[in-house]
Amino acid sequence: MAVPARLDKYTKTTKQRHFSRDFLAGWENYETWEEATVGDTGPAQRTFEIAQEDIIAYNRACGETDPLMIDPVHAKKHSPTGSVLPHPVFVTTIGFYSLGEKGLGTWARTPGARNPQQRIEINEPLEVGEIITTTVTTTDKFIQRDKAYLQMLLELHNEKGVLKARWWATLILPRTRADVAEFANA
Amino acid sequence: MSVPTFTEIELGYAFTPLKQSYAQDDIDRYALASLDMNPVHTNEEWASRAQVFGTPATVGHGMMTMSALTSVVTRQWGVVSHGGSVRFVDAKFTKPVKAGETVTATAKVKRKNHHGPGRNWVLIAVEAKDSSGDLVGLADVGYNLPD
Questions:
Q1: Contacts for A146 with CB less than 8 Å, ≥ 6 apart
Q2: How confident is the model at residue A160 (pLDDT cuts 50, 70, 90)?
Q3: The model's pTM
C-alpha cells in the first residue's frame, strides 16, 4: 500500500479527504526534469479556497500553540485579520493542492525527489475565505555536481488579484521518465 | 508575545531555541497537513527499497524543517504582530532528518536593513541541528519591524 492506513487518523479537513494522496499512482503524468522548459507558465490546475480548518491543521502539525494560530474564537477578537493566522510555510499546502496531478509543476510529486532549498515571500497574510489562484512558471533548470535541479515560481493571488505570496520551489529530480519509473516501481 | 521596535533591536539578538520532534507520527501529521504525501516520508517499506537518501529510513519533509526554521522566530515575535511580520524565508537543507530524530533550531539577528519609516526590516540567521549536532538546515528569515 503506497499510503499507510495509519495516516487516516490524522485526516482532519475536507481537502485532505479528497486530495490524491498516492504519489506513486499516476506518476506517468508528472512533468519530468527532462521535459520541463524554462519560461513555461500557466495556471495551476485548482484554486484553493482557504478554510479555517486548513490553516489550523497546518499550524498544529508544526507544533504551534499560539491561540492566534489555532483558536478561532480568540483569533476573531485579537487577530489583525479577524481569523486564525497561517504559519508562513502554509503556502506549501496551497501549492501541493493547487498543482494537481498532471502537467506543469507536478514534478513536485516525483518519487525519488530531494529537497535542497526553498524560498517563500509573504506579501500579505493569507486569510480564511480567500480564493487563491496559483500561477506556475518554470524558472530554472540546471545540472550541478551531477544532480538535476529544477525550480518553479508559484505566485499566489487572491480573488481580488492581490499578490499574497510567492514560493520558489526547487527540487533535485530523477532526470528522465525512466529514472522516475525506477523509484515509482521500487 | 511581543515584537521589538527596529530602533531597539540589537545585532546578535538571540531567540529562544526551538526543539522539533521528527517521530514518525509527527512526520505523518505534517504530510497530511501540507499535502506533501511523497512516500519517502511516510511509507517505511517503500523508503527501505528506494533508499532515496541512501538510508532505509523514512525522513522528515524539508518543508517541516523550514517550518521549524521559521517558528523559532515567530513563536517569539509572532507571524503578524503589532507592526511586525514575516517578510520571507529562504531555506537550504543540508542533511536529511531521519524519523525518530529531534532537531533544535537557533536564530540570531544578523543585519538591520534601514529602508525608512514603515519599511525597516531585519535579517535573521537561523540554523537547525540534529541530535548528533549535524547541521540539517539553515535559513535567512526577513522580518518587518515597527519603527
A1: none
A2: very high
A3: 0.96
